[in-house]
Each structure stands twice: as structure tokens, then as C-alpha cells.
Design goal:
The structure holds two protein chains of two kinds.
Chain A (H helix, E strand, L loop, with lengths): L4 H17 L2 H9 L18 E6 L8 H10 L10 E9 L4 E4 L17 E10 L7 H5 L5 E3 L5 E3 L9 H5 L6 E3 L4 E3 L5 H4 L6 H5 L5 E5 L6 H8 L2 E2 L11 E4 L7
Parallel strand pairs in A: 1-11
Antiparallel strand pairs in A: 1-9, 2-3, 2-4, 5-6, 7-8, 10-11
Chain B lengths: L5 E3 L11 H24 L7 H17 L2 H6 L8 H4 L10 H30 L2 H10 L8 H34 L12 H27 L6 H32 L4 H11 L1 H25 L4 H32 L5 E3 L12 H21 L3 H9 L1
Antiparallel strand pairs in B: 1-2
Helix pairs in contact in B: 1-2, 1-7, 1-8, 1-12, 1-13, 2-5, 2-13, 2-14, 5-6, 5-7, 7-8, 8-9, 8-12, 9-11, 10-11, 11-12
The chains are: A alpha+beta, B mainly alpha.
Bound molecules: iron/sulfur cluster (SF4) (2 copies).
The site of one iron/sulfur cluster has 15 residues of chain A, from helix 5 and strand 8.
């Protein structure tokens, strides 16, 4: 998962230089030289994509497979309270009280701690880094270790982060955590190592109901654009002006 | 850990990120800014009454300034990369200015000290032998001109420097306030008043510290206290307390009056999580009681010992109150969840990289530094001469 900013820039530059030279041979030779394990695939051009994410809260069943798959895929410690994605449960009781929970980030599913007959309304809301278009976490980082890629993904440069945790304070969604092993901030990457190889993020892949969808906002035919064009959409905390790129279908007013 | 959580907090919030060390950081820079501003009362505004402590205040500012980076570095996940903040500052970050503002201010304070002690240094260089002579000559930068004219030039330069120093002291600390005030994710922090609140509390804490150190130094040296100076400092303390409390109340009142979405969680914070440290320590002990005591000091005639005791108590209370204020901001802000639906509790640990022990050590170091610098550059001449008069 060690994808550094410099590697991106290097690869980006080389791709551009290669393309400009107009020689497929030179291009492939140069790019082959930089094949780090998790860096983008050879033919990937980050100028061509702009990623977006859809959460359909109406069909999430709270099974927590996404949260589980994420921890496995991205080596997020299972024994620490840190999550790149999680699922929240909202239950309105008969007396109107709203109970919100997300035990262990939903990884083990949800216990029936309130008898169903006492609940009048319930739903699940998957959460993940919003890869904001105006990300406060990037704004506050004193050394620029957290940054937005050209294809719209907010990442942390683990080789550069000083571990001040200002970004964790700055994210309004609780999407960031401190990685004690790395001594740096950490967060969802939308599985950058996967999406640049044409795969889906692990959470999207793992969801059995299709409540999570991922696609290219630049492609008018992508699943994300199809939903954005037809459904009523909201984002989390729109008043903060962060411009999230995780779009919610069926978002309830109680959702925080 | 679970029992310390009320309501719903985002799963990643269970760990409190900024610990007691980050409480210490604004506390220490505040003392620096306050002590410096107290010294400029004489250096810039020509308030003769505070002359006895003017040079001592500069040394105090320096001693605390030298440790100001410690809590930050101790807290970083990668202290060895901390210097990147100087090499590759990311300008949209409020924190990125720290390295530059800090360094600039350090230079100003050191120069200011050099100028106001130059005469003493030169004399010492002349009157001492061996390594001491070498040290003082080096401190004098081997320029020994202490003619009337040269000293006058020094004084003019010192004044100019102090004039630059005030805005930079204000900036150094106001900007610390902005580190919190600029975080829109946190309703308890996000207010444009934050830099001003920080600045005012910095000034009161700096003056209070100076008062205590002055009284203590005179007692240790068995020297009479200059009551005029003391009362003058007490007077400024009182005035700045008014600004301080006005701003602090303004923030709370407007939050409560406007009653935005976050008001429920703020009310919970104030009435439950930080009720004692906020209403009890920060407001009552830190502002109300000192305010009354200092008011009495202004009214009572004679009875110098009693007044001195009242001033001392006020200063101790102010110092504790300002610490509580930093605590309530830094820790309080993290005890509410950004989900606005739950709260957490910070439980300080003692032995830990970010625990209470390193905090205590960091807080003791400046006093040791102060002892050393006052040994090298004794500020007593002013203090004792004026007192003797
Ligand atoms: S959700 Fe948080 S971590 Fe993700 S981009 Fe937005 S502010 Fe940054
Ligand atoms: S913890 Fe790292 S990524 Fe976050 S603000 Fe600090 S330096 Fe930047």
C-alpha cells in the first residue's frame, strides 16, 4: 500500500513524456522501470479518469462484509479501533429516540440489542472517506503529505507524513485514523492499487446487494453517472462545503 | 474504554489524537507571548513603572520559547520529519507557518535581549578572566563600544525591535488560536474569535507568570519588592482579564443564542464533560476571583503585604485558569464527536510518550533554563535599583 506521491508524480511525468515522444516503444521501456508493487498499472493514465462512489442506503443490509474485506485488502489492523470504511445503523424507537451504532465498525455484523417490536424505523448507512473535492484534510496538512490525485482520490504519502494528526482533526467525517505501525495518518484509498488496474475497490466488490458502486465520473455511461442522472442524491454534511464524491441515495435526515 | 463513550461517536474517534502535550503547546507559547508583551510595556510604551521587570520578562520569554517546540516534536509520529515543515511548508495549512513564525520570533527575542544586556555584557567581559571573559566577549560579539552614544543607538534599535516584536508575539499566539479556530469540522473550535481569545488569555497568563517570578526572585534574593511595579503589573493583569472574559463569554453566548445544529452537543460538553474545568476553573477560579481580588488591591490603601498576597493568589489562579482554558479547548473539542451525537472521555496516562510525565518535565525545563540565563545575564540590576529607590 506504499504508494507515494513522488512515485505518482514520477509515473505521471513519465507517462506524459512518453506520450509526447509519441513512441510506444520508449514509453513502455521507461514505464516498466518503475513497476512498484502497488503503483498504477502500466497503461493507466490518471488524466483520463475522475472517480466517484455511490452508496444506496436503501439496499444496504448491514452485513459488514465491506468493512471486513477492506481490513483484509488493506492490511488495516483487526485488533485496533481503526477503520477505512464502516457501516452505521440508525434505529428510531417507538418513543422517537434515535439510536445510532456501529459496533466494531460493523465487521461482525449487528447484534439485536433492542427488541424489533420497539423499533419503528431502521436502516443502515455505509461510510467511507468521501474523497472530497474540497478536502479540509488536504488543506490543513502542514507538509502537503496528504494530497489529491489527478483522478480525484485523496491519499496520504506515508513516506512524507510527519504524524501531526492535524488532518484527522480536520476531517469532518471521522474517515481518518492514526496508523501506529507507520506512525502516520491513514485512510481509505478507494483501493488505488486496484482501481488503477481496472478492478473495483474491495468494499464494492464484497457488497452482496450492490449498495456500494464505484465508477468514472468522466464516463457518461458509468454506473455512477447513470445513478447520479436518475436518482435524488445527497452528500454528507453538504453545508461544510467539502464537496464529497461519495453520493448517497436515500439519505435520511438523521444521518450524521 | 466503551464505558467512557456516550451516544454515537464515529468508530475512528475512539482514540483521542491530541493529548495533554498539545494542551501544553498553546499554554507555553501563550506564556511567551504574554511575557514579551509585558516587557514591551516598558520597551515600547515607556511605562517606567514596569522597568524593573522588563529585562527579566525578556529572559522569561526566551526560556519558555526554547521549549515551545518540545511538546510538538514529542507528539509527532515522525519527529525526524518535523523539519519538513520548514522545507516544504504547505501554505494552506495553519500549522505550516509555525516553523517560520517561531524562528523569526526567536531571533527578535534574542536580539532584543542582546541589546538590552549589551552594556552589562561588555562590562562583564572587561571585569572577568579566563573562560568567563571569553564567554562574555563572545556574547558581546567582540564589540565593546558602550559610549553614551552607542548605548543610545542600542536603545533606539531595541525599541524598533520591540515594535516588530509585539505583532510577531501576537501573531505567534493568535495563529495558534487559528490552528483550532480554522477547523470547520469541530464546532467547539471553529470560531473566528479563537485567535483573539488565545491572545488575551496568553497576555494574562504571561503577566501572571511574571508577577510570580518577580516576587519569588526578590524573596530568594532577600530584596525589597518594588510595589509600584507590582501594582502596575497587577493593574494590567486586571485590564486584560476584562478583555479575556468578554471574548470568552461572547463566544459562548453567541453559540447558545444562535443555537445551530451543534448546540445540543455543545450544551452537553459544557454541562457534563467540562463543566468543572470550564465554569469552575477557567471562569470562576481563573477570571472571576482574580478579577475581584485585583479590584480590591486597587481600592485598599497601604497594607502592602496583604496586597502582595492577594496579587500572588490572583496570579496563581490566573495561571491555573488559563491552563484550564487550553485544556477545555484542546481536550474539550475532542471529547465531542464530529457526529454531533456522542461524547468521549480523555483519560490521561502518566508514563507514556504523550503522558503526564513528559508534560511535567517539559513544564519544568523552562525554569531551569531561566535559572541558567539569569545566571549568565543577571537582570537584577534594574530590579533591585528601582526597588531600592
Ligand atoms: S472525507 Fe475526510 S479524509 Fe476523506 S477527503 Fe473528505 S475530509 Fe479528507
Ligand atoms: S498527520 Fe500526516 S497527513 Fe495528516 S496533516 Fe499531519 S503530516 Fe499531513
Amino acid at each position: 500500500m506504499e504508494v507515494t506521491r513522488r512515485e505518482f508524480t514520477k509515473i505521471g511525468c513519465k507517462v506524459i513524456i512518453g506520450a509526447a515522444a509519441g513512441s510506444a516503444v520508449i514509453e513502455s521501456v521507461i514505464i516498466r522501470g518503475t513497476g512498484a508493487e502497488n503503483s498504477p498499472a502500466d497503461e493507466y493514465d490518471w488524466n483520463e479518469h475522475y472517480w466517484g462512489y455511490i452508496v444506496d442506503t436503501r439496499i444496504c443490509i448491514g452485513c459488514g462484509r465491506c468493512a471486513n474485506a477492506c481490513k483484509r485488502e488493506n492490511d488495516v489492523p483487526f485488533d485496533e479501533p481503526v477503520y477505512r470504511t464502516w457501516v452505521e445503523r440508525y434505529r428510531t424507537k417507538l418513543d422517537g429516540e434515535v439510536v445510532i451504532d456501529s459496533p466494531n465498525g460493523s465487521i461482525d455484523g449487528f447484534p439485536d440489542d433492542i427488541p424489533p417490536e420497539e423499533v419503528k424505523k431502521a436502516f443502515y448507512v455505509p461510510k467511507i472517506c468521501n474523497h472530497c473535492d474540497n478536502p479540509p484534510c488536504v488543506q490543513v496538512c502542514p507538509v502537503g503529505a496528504t494530497f489529491e490525485t489527478k483522478d480525484g482520490v485523496v491519499l496520504v504519502d506515508y513516506k512524507y507524513c510527519i504524524g501531526c494528526r492535524y488532518c484527522i482533526q480536520g476531517c469532518p467525517y471521522g474517515a481518518r485514523y492514526f496508523n501506529t505501525k507507520k506512525g502516520t495518518a491513514d485512510k481509505c484509498t478507494w483501493c488505488y492499487h486496484r482501481i488503477t488496474k481496472g478492478l473495483l475497490p474491495a468494499c464494492v466488490q464484497a457488497c452482496p446487494t450492490g449498495a456500494r458502486k464505484f465508477g468514472d465520473l468522466n464516463d457518461p455511461d458509468s454506473i455512477v453517472n447513470k445513478i447520479l442522472d436518475t436518482e435524488r442524491i445527497n452528500v454528507l454534511k453538504p453545508d461544510l462545503g467539502t464537496k464529497p464524491k461519495v453520493y448517497y441515495v436515500g439519505l435520511d435526515r438523521e444521518v450524521r | 474504554m466503551e464505558s467512557l463513550i456516550w451516544g454515537y461517536v464515529y468508530p475512528n474517534e475512539v482514540e483521542i489524537q491530541w493529548s495533554i502535550l498539545i494542551v501544553l503547546y498553546p499554554y507555553i507559547t501563550g506564556l511567551v507571548a504574554g511575557a514579551f508583551i509585558a516587557s514591551s510595556l516598558y520597551h515600547v510604551f515607556g511605562k517606567k513603572e514596569v522597568k524593573p521587570v522588563a529585562r527579566f520578562a525578556l529572559l522569561t520569554a526566551l526560556s519558555f520559547l526554547l521549549v515551545a517546540t518540545m511538546p510538538l516534536l514529542t507528539h509527532l509520529g515522525h519527529p525526524e520529519r518535523g523539519i519538513e515543515i520548514m522545507f516544504t511548508p504547505h501554505v494552506t495549512s495553519a500549522m505550516s507557518g509555525f516553523g517560520y513564525i517561531y524562528s523569526f520570533y526567536l531571533i527578535v527575542v534574542v536580539l532584543e535581549i542582546w541589546l538590552s544586556f549589551r552594556e552589562d555584557i561588555v562590562k562583564k567581559a572587561h571585569n572577568s578572566k579566563g573562560w568567563q571573559e571569553l564567554m562574555y566577549s563572545a556574547l558581546a560579539l567582540f564589540s565593546y563600544d558602550i559610549s553614551e552614544k552607542a548605548l543610545h543607538e542600542d536603545e533606539k534599535l531595541a525599541k524598533k525591535l520591540a515594535i516588530i516584536g509585539i505583532p510577531s508575539a501576537a501573531f505567534l499566539h493568535g495563529y495558534v488560536g487559528f490552528i483550532f479556530g480554522g477547523i470547520k469540522a469541530n464546532p467547539w473550535w471553529s470560531t473566528p474569535l479563537m485567535p483573539l481569545i488565545f491572545l488575551m488569555s496568553a497576555i494574562v497568563s504571561g503577566i501572571a507568570l511574571l508577577i510570580l517570578l518577580y516576587i519569588a526572585s526578590m524573596k530568594i534574593r532577600k530584596h525589597a519588592i518594588d510595589h509600584k511595579c507590582l501594582h502596575s503589573l497587577a493593574h494590567y493583569l486586571w485590564v486584560f482579564l476584562i478583555f479575556d472574559v468578554t471574548l470568552e463569554m461572547l463566544e459562548i453566548i453567541s453559540m447558545k443564542y444562535e443555537s445551530l445544529e451543534e448546540i445540543d452537543i455543545i450544551n452537553r460538553l459544557l454541562s457534563d464533560k467540562i463543566a468543572t474545568t470550564f465554569y469552575g476553573v477557567q471562569l470562576t477560579m481563573g477570571i472571576l476571583i482574580p478579577f475581584m481580588l485585583l479590584l480590591l488591591v486597587g481600592i485598599i490603601k497601604n497594607r502592602e503585604t496583604l496586597k502582595m498576597i492577594m496579587i500572588s493568589i490572583s496570579s496563581v489562579f490566573v495561571l491555573i485558569g488559563v491552563f484550564a482554558m487550553r485544556w477545555n479547548v484542546v481536550i474539550g473539542g475532542q471529547e465531542i464527536s464530529k457526529s454531533l451525537s456522542g461524547t468521549l472521555t480523555y483519560v490521561p496516562v502518566f508514563f507514556n510518550q504523550e503522558g503526564v510525565l513528559p508534560a511535567i518535565i517539559i513544564l519544568i525545563i523552562p525554569f531551569i533554563i531561566l535559572r541558567v540565563v539569569t545566571y549568565i545575564l543577571p537582570p537584577w540590576k534594574d530590579m533591585e535599583e528601582e526597588a531600592a529607590r
